[in-house]
């Protein structure tokens, strides 16, 4: 495809490929039941939550549980696999309205890398803290 490397190509500006900090109102893919559509929206929220807060040692278990539950759900409900891929494509698209960066010490080795958003709002920090405290009592993929 001739436009693969061109960031100005209209294909890369399709609404389904643009990063969103807002919740979805409808799934990114076609799903044939309202129950699957509701699960798809919850799956997108899970991806947003996972990607919006920094991964620190104290919260790593919570992040692992979020990822495991999302993947397990997609293994059990095959219709959601395309939805997860679409959500990941959308949320990893380059965006300028929220700057995230990987902060790496100059001589970092792979085991020392820590991923942190450059800017974490107090709302998402307090939401993460509240949800992290309750993750043992509540299924985290539905937060």
TrEMBL record:
Keywords of this entry: Repeat
Cross-referenced PROSITE patterns: MYTH4
Domain MyTH4 residues, every copy: 19-143
SMART domains: MyTH4
Transmembrane feature ranges: none
GO CC terms in record: cytoskeleton
Origin superkingdom: Eukaryota
Region annotated Disordered, chain positions: 120-143
Protein name: MyTH4 domain-containing protein
């Amino acid at each position: 495809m001739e436009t693969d490397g061109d960031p100005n190509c209209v294909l890369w500006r399709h609404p389904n490929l643009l990063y969103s900090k807002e919740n979805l109102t409808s799934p990114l893919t076609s799903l044939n039941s309202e129950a699957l559509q509701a699960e798809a929206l919850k799956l997108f929220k899970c991806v947003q939550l996972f990607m919006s807060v920094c991964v620190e040692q104290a919260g790593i278990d919570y992040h692992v549980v979020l990822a495991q539950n999302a993947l397990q759900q997609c293994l059990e409900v095959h219709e959601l696999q395309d939805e997860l891929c679409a959500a990941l494509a959308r949320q990893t698209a380059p965006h300028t309205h929220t700057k995230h960066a990987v902060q790496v010490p100059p001589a970092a080795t792979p085991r020392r890398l820590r991923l942190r958003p450059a800017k974490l709002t107090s709302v998402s920090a307090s939401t993460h803290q509240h949800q992290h405290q309750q993750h043992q009592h509540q299924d985290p993929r539905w937060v």
